[in-house]
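hey can u check if this looks right to u? its 177 residues, i copy pasted from the old doc so theres a chance i mangled smth
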Amino acid sequence: MTPHRVPLTELEKGIPFEQRHIGPDHEARAKMLAQVGYGSLDELTAAAVPDVIKNADALELPGARTEAEVLEALCDGTNECLLSFVYERRFRDQEKQYQPWIDRQWTKVSRTLTHLNAEPPKIGKKLHGGHFALASMLGYLQLRFEGQWEADHADLIDWARKFEKHFPDHQAMKPQG
């Protein structure tokens, strides 16, 4: 800390929570604006924000992703975490493995599993790419992480059974350990 800086704890002494976190009142805001030489927040914003950012035209954003696209992207990202976890353990010397990174990959996987277990995708008359991505992810978990994830994800295991009823050839396509 530089010698002229006042610690935040000192600045906050005696100031009620609301004043510290809701923002300044009209009088304090006017004092701050006068200090920096502006009469209003609009004047300050006009001076501080570059013109290219102030563009009033509507942004040309892509349309919303479909459920299939979102599910596919989520499962693909989770598979990447699983693969990198396996590769870290399989190909990197033990002393070079970084456990916090490995733990972070598993945390990402766990969050995905928790989310999908709470809201498994519906299986209608037609299957889509997201369904196949999820079945692939669950198959890889079963192959490489058997016994490490199933206990808390009964709804996902049930989803996999329903998927296989809709697509019976899936069982024959799954890799066998």
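The chain has a mean pLDDT of 88.
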